[in-house]
Write a structure and sequence with these properties.
The protein has 179 residues and is mostly beta strands. The chain is built from no helices and 14 strands. A hairpin with a 2-residue loop joins strand 10 and strand 11.
């Protein structure tokens, strides 16, 4: 992994400095493989990285220092165009979306954490098979975000599960499976 230049305020008076390091392991990493298997997205040191599927140099997609962020748990849309991830960016914890090739992440409306319990509010989001919706858990309840309307709504459950919902996924026919 090759580091990013530091902001001038953190580097020597002459400008920025480049920090390089090599790592062969990490703790509590999350990753996802692109649908075409050509690249992997992972979180390391609070930011997202993209690595070629066959291996090679990692490219930073987000910058934990410049963005005052901690981005984790990335998941690639089935069409390979988007990455959804959990982030705490400038003290706003929520579910974020960015283009798979990088770009400015945006907070999905209605996903902000209502209770500040760092990294315990969300569980891994799940993309619909057509990449048009993201299902996720917030505060023990299931929600659906529709990309076309950029709106988030709670999912009514006919038979609520006792305890706290911890994961959500889509069945191949488009119905949700909660467990």
């Amino acid at each position: 992994v090759r580091g990013q230049p530091l902001p001038a305020s953190l580097g020597p008076a002459t400008g920025t400095r480049l920090i390089s390091f090599t790592t062969t392991e990490g703790t509590n990493l999350s990753f996802d493989l692109s649908p075409d298997r050509r690249w992997i997205v992972l979180d390391l040191l609070g930011q997202l990285w993209r690595i070629p599927g066959e291996g090679g140099r990692a490219t930073a997609l987000t910058d934990a220092v410049a963005d005052a962020a901690e981005d984790v748990d990335p998941i690639v849309s089935p069409d390979g165009a988007w990455i959804a991830f959990q982030g705490d960016r400038n003290n706003v914890e929520g579910l974020w979306l960015m283009p798979a090739g990088g770009g400015v992440p945006r907070l999905l409306p209605g996903t902000e954490a209502s209770v500040r319990v760092r990294w315990k509010t969300y569980f891994r989001p799940a993309w619909s098979r057509d990449s048009r919706h993201i299902a996720f858990i917030r505060d023990g309840r299931a929600f659906l975000h529709r990309l076309a309307s950029d709106s988030t709504t709670a999912l009514p459950l006919e038979n609520p599960v006792s305890g706290v919902l911890q994961s959500i996924d889509w069945l191949p026919d488009g119905r949700l499976l909660l467990f």
